[in-house]
Structures are given as C-alpha cells and as structure tokens.
Amino acid sequence: MSLMSKIWLRMRRSAIDLAADTRGLAAVEFAMVVPLMLVLFFGTVEFSSGVAVDRKVTLMARTLSDLTSQNISVTSTQLANIFNASTGIMTPYDASPVNARIVELYVDASLNVHQIWTATTGTTPPTGTVTVPTALKIAGTYLIYSEVSYLYKPTIGYVMTKAGINLNDFTFTRPRQSLCVFNPPPSSPSASCPTS
Q1: DSSP, residue by residue, the chain
Q2: Tens of pLDDT along 118-150?
C-alpha cells in the first residue's frame, strides 16, 4: 500500500471514530446553553423585581390618597407621617427614589378644577396640572389626588437598561369624613371649605 492510501485510510478511520466518539458532548452542549440560560435567569429576576416594584408604586399611590381622605384636616406633621407610612410599602426595595405628591382639588359649578393645596416628598416630586377624568367632575365636590414616581434601577442591568425605568401611578379619592380636607386646620370649627 502506498503512503498516500495509508494516510487516507487513517484519516477516514479517524473521522469515523471522531463522529462516533461522544466523550465531552455534555460539556460542549453545556457551554452552548449556559449563556442563554444565564440571560434568561437574570432577565427573569430583573423583570419580576420590576413588576414587584411597579405594584408597590401603585399601592403607595392608593395609600397616600386613602390616608389623606380619612382626615377632616391635616397638618404638615401629619402629611409627613402619611408620606413615611406609605414609603414603608416599598420594603424591601430602596425607598430613596420615591417621589410623591398629594393634591386636594375642587370642582366648581362650571366643572373647572382648582388646586386647593399640595404636599410633596422626594428629590424631584411630580409637578404639573392634574387632569381629572370627566366621570369624576361633579360640581361642588373635592378630590384627593396622589401621584407616585419611582426610578427602578435593576440590580444587574445586563438584560434591562442600567439607567433604570421610570415607574409611576396616580389615584383619586373623595374625602370621607367631611366635604374637604383642610390644610392647615381651620381656626374656627365652622369654617367653610376653600374653593380656590
């Protein structure tokens, strides 16, 4: 047999042996699947944490308006306590990115909305005009509006943006104990609710 045919025969046997050899197959498959599995794992962790924080932002907005609407009047100390109590909802997540505001609104006879008072917390609390849905515009009534914004930054930031996602929610509640919620409390018990 010539040298070339011996080399060809050896190469052919090596190729057949290589195709039949399954040693290390699991390691190769593992190396191919691990990056995909890690992306899926960390993506699921980041996404589920984001959903949990978004739910807590919604609960915080509802709590702010609910606690405020249960009072006849509120002082700045009571409002600070309301903000602190609602911030506790964010546990176990960091509460420092929380920015919130509470606004009392009055709807006049022409269905125009007037802001009576506002209270805020956070480094950059929400601002701007409050848009009241038509269904809530009832002449001569008051509304307590609360709004919460939260900059959610993922722990790892590999799947989601490291800059963060701005989560926010708002809610409206009607005063429960009286026609309006005074801030500050009136000097006279028979004081009428402000309209502007």
Answers
A1: --HHHHHHHHHHHHHHHHHH--TTHHHHHHHHHHHHHHHHHHHHHHHHHHHHHHHHHHHHHHHHHHHHHT-SB--HHHHHHHHHHHHGGGTTS--TTEEEEEEEEEE-TT--EEEEEEEEESSS---SPPPPPGGG--TTEEEEEEEEEEEE--SS-SSS-TT-EEEEEEEEE--SSSSS-BSSPPSSTTPPPP--
A2: 999 999 999 989 999 999 999 999 999 999 999
